[in-house]
Amino acid sequence: MSNLEKYNQAFCETFNIEAAALPELKYQDIPEWDSVGHMTLMAALEEAFDIMLEVEDIIDFSSYAKGKELLKKYEVEIAE
Amino acid sequence: MLERHSDFLDVEPYSLNKVEKRERLEHYLNELTRHHYEHCPEYARILNAFDKNPEDDMTLEEIPALPVRIFKEKDMLSVPRDRIVKVMTSSGTSGQKVSKIYLDKETTRAQTKCLTNIVKSYIGSKRLPMLILDTPLVKKDRALYSARGAGIIGFSMFGRDVTYTLDEEMNLDVAALERFMDRNGGERILLFGYTFMIWQYFLKELERRNINLNIEGGMLFHTGGWKKLKAEQISEDMYRERLQKVCGNISVHNQYGMAEQLGSVFMECEHGNMHCSIFSDVIIRRAEDFSVCDHGEAGLIELMSVLPSSYPGHAILTEDLGICLGEDDCPCGRLGKYFKLLGRVQNAEIRGCSDTYGR
Questions:
Q1: Residues in chain B within 8 Å Cβ distance of A63
Q2: B142 contacts on A by Cβ (under 8 Å)
Q3: B123 φψ region: left (φ > 0), alpha (ψ -120 to 50), beta (else)
Q4: Which of A69, B28, B76, B304 has the smallest number of CB atoms closer than 10 Å to its CB?
Q5: Hey, CA dihedral for B117, B118, B124, B129, is it positive or negative?
Q6: How far apart are CA A54 and CA A69, in angstroms?
Q7: How close A31 comes to chain B (CA, Å)?
Q8: Any chain B CB within 8 A of the CB of A44?
Q9: How many domains does chain B have?
Q10: What 3-state DSSP class applies to B355?
Q11: What ipTM is given for this predicted complex?
């Protein structure tokens, strides 16, 4: 599975949504992505990429797009 | 409006002396007072009733404090309703109305940032293996979302391998606890939970089963208030000592805060004193006339926070009693006021001042 597929899968499974809705998705746009959903998503990403996010990045992870950028710090490149 | 002081939220939380702190706090709190005056009609009415002009720069002591009760009785908002992303409710003892605190994205974000800064100054910047001394039900059932759930989710950011120690019926999940210790024994461990629930469902159960977790180094943070433990005559020392006996080498820190001011919490230091960070302050007032108490004199606790912008909660009068012990000179080295909590005021006493604000 490519990194993009893994990244998308973490979102789709955590929030139970279609991949088509992801590019525009931001924190608190949907009821599922509240603070509880956020921590579930973070755990799913950590597991998928075998990384440990820093607290600051958990806070700054404010959208689907922003997350891609943040993961670069952890040497996870998500190519389109 | 919080963007204007978002850089401030990154400043070391116990690093300003009283002169520097007052200057910053007065600036931000006066700004918030003007903001709420313009955007919350209820708040404007209260200020007018007190003959306060928000254009005047007020001292911390002059800024009117709203009684917490008001958030139970009225919907207090300083942003349009469609900007609200979360309504926080206080857990409220049975038979009482709950507070409703309206939060927009900006305020929730600032709260998280502030809490992170304060907690990191205690635990360091590395996320630690974490035990939550509560049931996972608080995160599963979102309808249950209250200050209790929010507190747990907020704190779980600082943990990894986050493990709940109680099952859905509040029984101690010994197997989960043992597996957690197998994975993480020898590491620094973070523990978090609610004061009374820790005592009732975690500590007593470990004692009954004669279990010792043998944690080699850890920090336990608890919050929620001492009311029920006071009824059982449990002292702070007893609480800490008995927890250390079943957990091992841990420090125990009481965290004081209100649903009305999430984020800018007050943390108990190694010397048992509650500390104000640079994002908050405490003013102890005499119940008779609301004048400011001297250090060492008990009174009603007023709390100030730089965070609330979607609702006018930047200065609130609690129904708690406390005593300010000093400022900038706690032996732990943290700057700022430090204080002790003395419990709740009787209902009848507080009603008097709530009526005053209702004019």
A1: none
A2: 31, 34, 36
A3: alpha
A4: A69
A5: negative
A6: 14
A7: 9
A8: no
A9: 1
A10: helix
A11: 0.82
Q: Is residue B121 less than 8 Å (CB to CB) from chain A?
A: no
Reply yes or no on whether the pLDDT at B202 is more than 90.
yes
How far apart CA B304 and CA B315 sit, in angstroms, is: 4
A49 pLDDT more than 90:
yes
pLDDT at B141: 62
- Phi, psi (deg, nearest 5) at residue B71: -75, -10
Query: Any idea where the domains of chain A sit in the sequence?
Result: 3-74
Quote the CA–CA distance of A61 and B204 in Å, as a whole number.
39
Q: What are the pLDDT digits (tens) for B27-45?
A: 999 999 999 999 999 999 9
Residue of A nearest to B136 (CA): A36
Chain-chain contact of A36 with B139 (C-beta, under 8 angstroms): yes
B262: CATH: 3.40.50.12780
Say how far apart CA A79 and CA A2 lie, in whole Å: 9
Closest CA to B175 of B152, B199, B209, B200: B209
Q: Which of residues 63-92 of B touch A (CB under 8 A)?
A: 85-86
| CA-based R_g, chain B, Å | 20
| Residues A59, B112: C-beta atoms closer than 8 Å | yes
Give which of A16, A26, A39 to mutate to test B binding, by max B Cβ within 10 Å.
A39
Task: State pTM to two decimals.
Answer: 0.88
CATH of A3-74, one of 3.90.1150.10, 1.10.1200.10, 1.10.3720.10, 3.20.20.140: 1.10.1200.10
Name the residue among A47, A48, A56, A51 with its Cα closest to residue A72: A51
Are B157 and A59 an interchain contact pair (Cβ–Cβ within 8 Å)? yes
- Find the domain containing B237 and state its range: 2-357
- To the nearest whole Å, the CA of B105 is away from the closest chain A CA by 8
Residue A52 to residues B79, B245, B314, Cα–Cα distance (Å): 36, 32, 35
In order, the DSSP letters of B160-218 are: EEEEE-B-TTS-B-HHHHHHHHHHHTTSEEEEEEEHHHIIIIIIHHHHHTT----EEEE
Mean pLDDT of the residues in chain B: 90
Report pLDDT digits (tens) over B99-124.
Answer: 899 999 889 889 988 999 999 999 99
